[in-house]
């Protein structure tokens, strides 16, 4: 599967926009991302495992709210920054 | 009494703004200042603090409009930065319970030489955290983050300041690292004498908004509290409801702001104390009338100094605009250095830095056009 990293988080990924993973759930994908890019997960998800207020996660074209959302090998995960003021 | 040093030479101001961090570095005379390029441009920087123990470590409390909160750490006076491996985060709530999440880190306090590498952090919503490795990793400190009584005193988001309720003014007694204070907006002032095993409210004498029970910590809103380095038994506090002083072991705050001019009042955010004379302290009043404009009263910015522990106050406005200056000075945006003649520094919500190098007698604007300023700290490097 491919994770699309927004520009605000590319300081963690050495400016790479697309990351290939083999993850079974959204939680697994975020854990793998954090293993490879320490600190990245906490910028996206709170300590209570909820997606932060101005961030949205989409699996293919469906918004995912639950970290237990299953993922398949050909899925695309988009981390999207929502509007957050001026 | 405890001895405090007198600094000489250059001063570096560490400036946190709504859109990044900046430094202003002076020459040895503090007459000329050089502004840095922004660091972390676009990030919301609530506090940037240098470690006086080694004079090279600097911590920065950061978040962005989208991303979660973090702390950046420099060990070379801000030249390079590394993110904390484990930023402050509340305990994960058990299944079925509602846990809290750190919105942003608001306040950073380095401990003293007898506790190397130890720092405290205060967050929004109110939480207290500690690092024992110079800010690289953080853990919840003491029981207050999960204590039902403290959660009740912290109140809800609706009880806090517009961008979130805050734990601030974390103070470690230089004579005893187990003696701690902190303030909460809202939630009052609290003290521990056993290294954080227990805390108790220290709110006697503090007033509340009319109609609220002053015996309940929830209703108290200390804005900024400072301990006098030359006499740690004396603390000053700028509160939503006036200016206060306490002389320990007394447990009662005394409202010393009633000696301020009536048309100025004693409402404000910051509080600054003299490095070597516990009778001297400064405030920067704001308009707390009607709907609380929170700007300089009458559009005329001024510091006020007391030289007698609050028995009287003197206006210090030489150099500031004489009219139509409608800025706000937030609680972390006024500070001082420790020179023989004390340098005072004020950052405004309009992005200006004002400096005095003569104990507040006269002021000059040393930077303008910065983003909204959240914090200013002075480092001796």
Count of folded domains of chain A: 1
Report the uncertain regions of chain B: none
Biggest interface found: A-B, 20 and 20 residues
Subunit arrangement of the protein: heterodimer
Beta-strand percentage of chain B?
A: 35-45%
Assign a percent range to the helix content of chain B: under 10%
The first-to-last residue Cα distance of chain A is 34 Å
**How many structural units, i.e. domains of chain B?**
1
Strand order, largest beta sheet of chain A: 2-1-5-3-4
Q: Could you tell me the mean pLDDT of chain B?
A: 96
Q: Which strand order do you get reading across the main beta sheet of chain B?
A: 3-2-1-28
CATH topology term of chain B? Methylamine Dehydrogenase, Chain H
CATH homologous superfamily title of chain B? YVTN repeat-like/Quinoprotein amine dehydrogenase
Structural class of chain A: alpha+beta
Largest sheet of chain B: 4 strands, antiparallel
Radius of gyration of chain B: 19 Å
Question: Biggest β-sheet of chain A: count, sense, barrel?
Answer: 5 strands, mixed
Q: State the shape of chain A.
A: globular
List the helices and strands and how they pair.
The complex is a heterodimer of chains A (86) and B (381).
Chain A: E1 2-4, E2 18-20, H1 26-36, H2 40-44, E3 55-59, E4 62-63, E5 76-81
Parallel strand pairs in A: 1-5
Antiparallel strand pairs in A: 1-2, 3-4, 3-5
Chain B: E1 12-17, E2 20-26, E3 33-35, E4 44-50, E5 58-63, E6 70-74, E7 82-83, E8 104-110, E9 119-124, E10 127-131, E11 139-140, H1 148-154, E12 166-172, E13 180-185, E14 188-192, E15 200-201, E16 222-228, E17 231-239, E18 242-247, E19 254-255, E20 268-273, E21 281-285, E22 303-306, E23 314-316, E24 334-336, E25 344-347, E26 353-356, E27 364-367, E28 373-379
Antiparallel strand pairs in B: 1-2, 1-28, 2-3, 4-5, 5-6, 6-7, 8-9, 9-10, 10-11, 12-13, 13-14, 14-15, 16-17, 17-18, 18-19, 20-21, 21-22, 22-23, 24-25, 25-26, 26-27
């Amino acid at each position: 599967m491919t994770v699309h990293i927004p520009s605000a988080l590319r300081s963690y990924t050495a400016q790479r926009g697309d990351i290939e993973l083999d993850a079974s759930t959204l939680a697994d994908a975020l854990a793998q991302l954090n293993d490879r890019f320490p600190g990245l997960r906490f910028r996206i998800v709170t300590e209570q495992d909820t997606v932060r207020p101005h961030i949205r996660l989409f699996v293919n074209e469906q918004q995912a709210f639950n970290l237990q959302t299953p993922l398949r090998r050909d899925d695309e995960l988009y981390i999207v920054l929502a509007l957050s003021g001026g | 009494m405890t001895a405090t040093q007198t600094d000489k030479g250059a001063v570096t101001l560490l400036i946190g703004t709504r859109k990044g961090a900046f430094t202003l570095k002076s020459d040895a005379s503090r007459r000329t200042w050089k502004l840095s390029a922004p660091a972390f441009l676009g990030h919301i920087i609530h506090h940037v603090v240098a470690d006086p123990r080694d004079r090279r470590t600097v911590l920065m409390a950061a978040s962005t409009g989208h991303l979660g909160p973090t702390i950046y750490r420099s060990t070379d006076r801000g030249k390079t930065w590394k993110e904390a491996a484990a930023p402050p985060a509340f305990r994960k709530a058990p299944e079925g319970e509602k846990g809290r999440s750190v919105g942003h880190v608001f306040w950073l306090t380095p401990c003293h030489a007898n506790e190397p590498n130890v720092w405290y952090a205060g967050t929004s919503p109110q939480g207290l955290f500690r690092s024992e490795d110079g800010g690289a990793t953080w853990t919840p400190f003491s029981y207050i983050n999960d204590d039902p009584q403290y959660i009740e005193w912290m109140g809800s988001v609706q009880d806090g300041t517009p961008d979130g309720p805050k734990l601030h003014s974390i103070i470690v007694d230089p004579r005893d690292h187990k003696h701690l204070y902190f303030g909460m907006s809202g939630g009052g002032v609290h003290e521990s004498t056993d290294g954080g095993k227990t805390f108790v409210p220290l709110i006697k004498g503090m007033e509340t908004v009319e109609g609220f029970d002053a015996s309940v910590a929830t209703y108290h809103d200390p804005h900024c509290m400072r301990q006098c380095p030359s006499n740690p038994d004396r603390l000053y506090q700028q509160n939503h409801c006036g200016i206060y002083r306490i002389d320990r072991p007394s447990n009662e705050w005394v409202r010393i702001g009633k000696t301020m001019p009536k048309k100025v009042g004693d409402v404000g955010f910051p509080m600054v104390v003299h490095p070597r004379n516990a009778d001297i302290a400064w405030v920067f009043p704001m308009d707390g009338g009607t709907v609380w404009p929170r700007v300089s009263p009458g559009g005329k910015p001024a510091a006020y100094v007391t030289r007698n522990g609050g028995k009287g106050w003197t206006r210090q406005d030489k150099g500031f605009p004489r009219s139509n200056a409608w800025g706000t000075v937030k609680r972390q945006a006024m500070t001082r250095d420790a020179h023989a003649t004390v340098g005072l520094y004020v950052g405004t919500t309009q992005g200006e830095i004002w400096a005095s190098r003569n104990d507040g007698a006269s002021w000059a604007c040393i930077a303008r056009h910065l983003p909204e300023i959240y914090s200013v700290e002075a480092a001796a490097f």
